[in-house]
Fold:
Amino acid sequence: MAGGEPRSVGGYALPAGIRFIEFFGLPGIGKTTASRLLAERLRSAGSVVDEKRTTWEDKALVARQLNRLNLVLPRLRHGDFRSIASRIAKFVAEDGQEAPVDLLRWTWSLWSVAAYMADQRSKGDKVTVLDQGLLQGFWSVLLKSRHRGTSEHWLDIIAAIGLDDIVFVELRGGIDLARNRIRSRDDRASRLQRQTATGEGALWTKAERAYCTIAADLWRRQNAAHSMPMLAVVDMSASASPEEVADKTLQAVLLAYERRQRSIESGSH
Structure:
């Protein structure tokens, strides 16, 4: 199998070419739970796995920002990262945000994720499972976007960061399922939980529109001759247990890798 020696996972082979497994989907759909259970399965099969919440919400605000500074500042010494950082900032500024503070917030968030991934690529070959990352970062940009048009597509920026070793896992589910799940949680981590009752419906509509935009753009890029992302899709339902979702995710990740390899091999002939 291309991409290095396979790593056995529960009877499957996790290709060494996979360095990141990143979840995306509507708030409350189950990204954090699925990422945790998938990481546990990979570890139990002998893979070296780091399960990470790149928002670092488990840290206090000051500690969270210091952690991001420690990642971003050293990377800014490198010209390639400065180029990516500039492209991210330009995209967010051109697209516009409803609140000026969000221009800084989402730019800084995307810089942090990009720096984290660059840092991990420089350290060994362990697999990093992200409950949210680049896609969820651009989803945040699109959520409150003024849709002014940009000189560059967001997927081209991700391609510059690096697509070859990332599998994006779409947890596909509708608003009703996500809303019911998020309402049952006892935290206030999501902005949709903190929204007033009068504005909740409109924000959920925007959330779904941004999510559908991300998913549609990814599927269109599946047919591109270059920079084809590895995309795994897991259909979510109220009856599916978290363990079932994790098992389906692993199978979908392997299929996404195989699909991309077949595309590369057919293109070389």
